[in-house]
Amino acid sequence: MDSTPSPSSSSAFDLVSRALGRYIPRGGAAAAAGPADAQGGRTTRRPVPANPAAGHQEQILGAVNLDGDLMITRCNLDAPVFAGLDAVAGQPFVDLLPPWDVPTVTRRLRQVVETGEAHVARIQRLRRSDGSELVVSLSILPAAAPEEGLTVSMIAMARRLHLYAAETAIGTSLDIGETAQSLAESLLAWGDVAAVDLDFAVWTGEGVTGQVQRRIRLRRAALVPDRAWPEGYVTPGDDLPSDASRLLAQAVLRNDAPQAIVIPDREAVERVLGSPRVVRALVPIDRSAGVACVPLVLDGVPPVVLGVAEVWRRADCPFRDSELFDLQELVARTAHHVDLARQHQREHTQVLALQRRLLPRTGGDTIEIASVYQPATPDSAGVGGDWVNSFPLPDGRTALVVGDVVGHGLGAAATMGQLSMEARALLSAGLAPDEVLEHLDETVTLLDEPGSGLAAGYSALGSTCCIALYDPVSHHLALSSAGHLPPVLVTPDGHAGPLALRPHPGLGIEFALREPFDVHTFVVPPGSLLALYTDGLVEDPALSIDEGIDRLAEAVSTVHPWDALQQAARHVVSALAPVHQRDDVTLLLARMIGHRKGDTATLRLPARYDAPARARAQVCALLRQWSTRDDTRDDVLLLVSELVTNAVRFAAGPVTVRLIRAGSGLLCEVGDTGNGRPRLRRGDLLDDGGRGLSIVHRLTTRWGVRWTDTGKVVWAEVAG
After folding, report:
1. CA pair distance 46, 245, nearest whole angstrom
2. What is the model's pLDDT at position 187?
């Protein structure tokens, strides 16, 4: 082997070679190889020992240097375990690979050349000159200078080392697909093709049972290597044919006990599978092949079968008993990782379903809504507590709410659902945004107390929330925020930027630090676009939070008034959010439309005895102008008369009457300066009071009260 130092003493190849020099004794394998030529190629070929891993089992390290064309320039494979690998300077590195692995490994080598990022520790098979194969852990390391090419380091996978490395690799992800893929890649050390098929309930995260199931549905979760498979062969994401699932289940559950089985050759495989369709679905190669099927079992009474791992190899290389023992040991060691991924998948699915259930479904005639929720990557801490909601209020306004609950998982999901529903109920009851936040603040504090029923150790203190109420008549937007990032507003003239809100601590902050919640009011002309979001959309380690918000404002400002809002929301998220993010990303876009000027009317009357009569006269003229039906007009006139009479009788100051024509109905609002709450009660026949609200209740489809800074507004809806 060539051991001449390169011009760059700090190259990856020289670093690995110097490390190898400390472990490979002089006069050992290097001497057996014979003299090396000037180009680093071998002039003599070492014979391949019957068991190259025997004897010097500790000598398992090797390195090969490649140029930019992926040709071998130097190599250091002096350990006996590498005997028979024809690594000669000037030949392509891919000549050392089985033909079906050439495209995949070539792609990885090119990727390291282009990106300069190492590709570390992948299980790979190498082809010896006698046709046998060697399993190695292969890493591709870029050189310090591009002209120096690549260094490929190899670790021949001894039995115990391989088991340890495989178990370590399999436990690094909570994604069930990645876990199955890691297991399949580790199993490839024992065969030509490895596959992992999981019970469909395990794949979807559902509960598993120890009861023996005669009918089982298997889904292919992983398959290696990645190459073009014959038509009809089951690939990842596909369900196995029912006959194949049944046969595999029977094979590994003989006598109701899970156990590994071996089918030695193609003839036996076809005899067991029976159907040509099942053979096409399960047998990966046309040549004679045998298979070892090892169940993934959770220990218990009775044991629980999660799925089946299958390793295929040529029939002329039968499985030895020691190899089957290793296969069963590896699968047994890693089955609990698959179950952990299943549990994580179950929790992830539950929380994600709750998240999507809370997303706004649609807007209305006065506002257009679009929302995007992008959960964190599956192997992160779990789905977070981001939530966004939009719903019409009974009085014709629209509520827009966005929140970010601290933490991840079921504890955050429970808090998120509770806060979302509480906010909706309080806003529908007519409370102002600041009053709603006061109640949410108290709720978060109560939830933090012991015995609250949330997940042990979970705390929602510091969660944030922002509430916006849009009035489609006055075109005003009322905002209150508890520690949340400011919404971004794009006005029809193209100006875009965050709304100026006074900073406020999050929900549940220590009592001494609490401040009153403010209500900020902004004018939003028709055509304005409002963006509510969570921090996952604008946070970037390379940027400050203000720069992230500015990027969002710039992206939202590019949305054209004619663009489909849902498509525009997806475009904004894809432009700003990374592909693999550690936090949830939530965006709500609201395009303000409002009522047309001719569909609303406002009357202001002094609180005098003649106010009801004046209101009836002006409202009657307006309803005739709107061509309202006679029966509807009579109901509205009686309704206005009763509400104005109550306002004059029980309140002081001016009375405001507002009528809104919305769809097929009419919304009537009467405002005054009183602070008493009208209540519907059951009265006796001779009672003088309380009949007005009874009339209102019978004439309307719904009615209610909302509070303002100067008093209250009683609203009522009449069907058209």
Report:
1. 47
2. 85
CA–CA gap between residue 238 and residue 246 (Å, rounded): 16
Tell me the H-state helices in 55-214.
Answer: 102-115, 159-170, 176-187, 200-203
Task: Classify the phi-psi angles of 475: left when phi > 0, otherwise alpha if psi is within -120 to 50, otherwise beta.
Answer: left
* pLDDT value of position 554: 93
Q: How many CB atoms lie within 10 A of CB 94?
A: 16
Rounded Cα gap, residues 531 and 538, in angstroms: 12
Burial code of 125-164, b = ≥16 C-beta within 10 A, e = fewer? Answer: bbbbeeeebbbbbbbbbbbeeeebbbbbbbbbbbeeebbe
- Percent helix, percent strand, percent coil in the chain, to nearest 5: 35, 25, 40
- Judge contact between 444 and 463, C-beta under 8 A: yes
Q: Could you give the CA distance from residue 324 to residue 304 in angstroms, rounded to a whole number?
A: 21
Q: Could you tell me the pTM of the whole model?
A: 0.58
Pairing assessment for the beta strands 585-592 and 496-498 based on DSSP bridges: unpaired
Q: What tokens does 95 get?
A: 């000549």
Query: Measuring CA to CA, which residue among 344, 340, 339 is closest to residue 305?
Result: 339
Question: What would the pLDDT profile of 40-54 be if each residue is shown by its tens digit?
Answer: 333 333 444 444 433
User: Which H/E stretch holds residue 298?
Assistant: strand 289-298
Residue 343's pLDDT band (cuts 50, 70, 90): confident
Q: Is the pLDDT of residue 142 over 70?
A: yes
- pLDDT band at residue 481 under the 50/70/90 scheme: very high
